[in-house]
Structure of COX assembly mitochondrial protein:
Amino acid sequence: MEKIKTDEIHLRHVETDVLIPKMMREKAKEICVEKVEAFNHCCKDSGFLMVLKCREQNAALKECLTIHYKDPAFFEQCKQEYIKEKIEFLTTGVATKNRKQKLPTSM
């Protein structure tokens, strides 16, 4: 089977405008994990008053996430990772999320 190169892959509109930004959001949340946890903790402790009490944590979280969303290098990194996953899917027919699941040990 012929190997597919990353520069030969054509990305559809939905991939560049929806799927790659979704990957960026997930990765940014992993990078900004401390701010995400601080915001979540504040929300749990504040209940209905979280809108008023957690403004500081929300602003810090937004700032951290926005830095990554607007970074062209971060977009390119996520795009290349998405392309690798797409090539892997095209060659194996198995989606990345299905490949990462462990096989049952008792067969």
About this structure: The first helix runs from residue 13 to 31. The chain has a mean pLDDT of 87.
